[in-house]
Amino acid sequence: MTNKKLLIILGPTAVGKSDFALNRARELSSPIINCDSRQIFKEMNIGVARPTPEQLHAVKHYLIANHSVEEHYTAGIFELEAMALLEELFKTHDTLVATGGSGFYIDALVSGLDDFPAADLNLREDLTSRLENEGLEALQAELKRLDPESYEAIDISNRQRVVRALEVTIATGRKFSSYKSASAKQRPFEIEKIGLRRGREALYQRIDARVDEMMSQGLEQEARGLLPFRSRPALNTVGYKELFGYFDGEYPLEEAVRLIKRNTRHYAKKQMTYWRRDSSIKWIDLD
Question: What's this model's pTM, rounded to 2 decimal places?
Fold first, then answer.
């Protein structure tokens, strides 16, 4: 497949990836492969900014809404599914378009994740117990001490991500961040990464407007319907966890909306920090 090419459209949340990818897919007569770690789950729609029915109808999308939040799903599983899909699609396409904001999933597709060790369930149980007894801040502080690179790169408000990073670092004596810079697998096709960005104020305005639109579309009702699954890793996601706090009576709805906007801005900043290490990305300013 040396004459084949995978075009990956990436960038922070709300920057405009879906529309940009849709236009490129139309130009190239390509379907779109989803690389967003939350759009994979069929129960999550509004809160993950899944493409609209019109967009899904205009161009065929793959790896979207094809798993349940009740399933165990990882970046490693995504790598296997995506590579099998690409092998099939490249039989009839010279260029394929993929898009998403999940840096870890994009890395899995581009470079592979086989270098990651298997889970140490005993250590994970111990760390999870510490999480409940000592709080997330204690584990964040330990991660910052042991692996400052991961502390800066991952979403440290994501409890499972912090536990996993500590688990790998403690169990192997090797920083979690070092695995992501291990020797990359060689893919049998060319890869081009296009990053989309906007000025901070413009991006933050788009984030705020998107959250308001999500609320008007029924995000609160969608989150209520997902309450039975709130303990699943997929639901430890900006947009849902803040509403769960509102449902628990921790604060009013207006505060939940404010927190969603604030935490989404923080997430966008983390995304950009993650990608700055990748010199192969060709950046396009959309302002």
Answer: 0.81
